[in-house]
Design goal:
The protein is of the alpha/beta class and 200 residues long. The chain has a single domain, classed as Aminopeptidase (3-Layer(aba) Sandwich), CATH 3.40.630.20. It is built from six helices and ten strands. Strands 2-3-1-4-8-5 form a six-stranded mixed sheet, sandwiched between helices. Strands 6-7 form a two-stranded antiparallel ribbon. A two-stranded parallel sheet has the order 9-10. Helix 5 links the parallel strand 9 and strand 10. Helix 1 packs across helix 6, helix 2 runs parallel beside helix 4 and helix 3 crosses helix 6. The site of pyroglutamic acid has 12 residues, from strand 4 and helix 4.
């Protein structure tokens, strides 16, 4: 059986809940097609989240990596096309406030997702879950861990499909936050399960 590393993030900024944690929790240990899911939750911290991602990749030696993040305000499931070599954005949970620094001093400007992002979007739409490719994961923690994972796998020269999927808020979060579109937590989990099924 192959292994899939599925990561989520802890709550951050004014999002009191991070629905990626429940998706990871729901799918951890599950067998989806050929993959056994290993679920992990990352910190929202520019100084530790990258190291956590690398540690999981090095210890679990996954055959595929899908990192999940909350994109509060988005309406659809959005697989990301590219990660950029830049840290920026709001203060993280530990107070770090990078201002455009590179993630890897000698790294490429961008690294493309190696997940079948178009297929994921098509299958989600066909099965009734609105989805679209996103051309930017931003410059905050989601972009940060996507870049670190892709960089590491490229260094290892491994053909491991890897990338990032942003998900909308859950209803539970939207009730507290008030001004964001939301999905049921069940649908969020189901959409990620379907996304995993696209991997061969
Ligand atoms: N979303 C943030 C960081 C953590 C998360 O779940 C992002 O989009 O960068």
């Amino acid at each position: 059986m192959k292994k899939l590393l599925l990561t989520g993030f802890e709550p951050f900024l004014d999002f009191t809940i991070n629905p990626t944690m429940s998706v990871v929790d729901d799918l951890n240990g599950k067998h989806i097609n050929e993959y056994e899911v290993v679920g992990r939750v990352l910190t929202v911290d520019f100084k530790s989240s990258g190291a956590e991602m690398l540690e999981h990749i090095r210890s679990e030696k996954p055959d595929a990596v899908i990192a999940l993040g909350l994109a509060g305000g988005r309406y659809k499931i959005t697989p990301e096309r590219i990660a950029v070599n830049c840290n920026d954005g709001d203060r993280d949970n530990s107070g770090n406030l990078p201002q455009g620094e590179k993630i890897m001093e000698d790294g490429p400007d961008g690294l493309f997702s190696t997940l079948p992002i178009r297929e994921i979007v098509e299958i989600l739409n066909e099965t009734g879950y609105p989805a679209d490719i996103s051309n930017t994961a931003g410059t905050y923690l989601c972009n940060h861990v996507m870049y670190q994972a892709l960089f590491e796998l490229k260094q290892q020269n491994k053909a491991v499909p890897a990338g990032f999927i942003h998900i909308p808020a859950s209803h539970e979060l939207a009730i507290q936050h008030k001004k964001i579109p939301s999905w049921s937590q069940n649908d969020l989990t189901k959409a990620i399960e379907i996304s995993i099924e696209t991997l061969s």
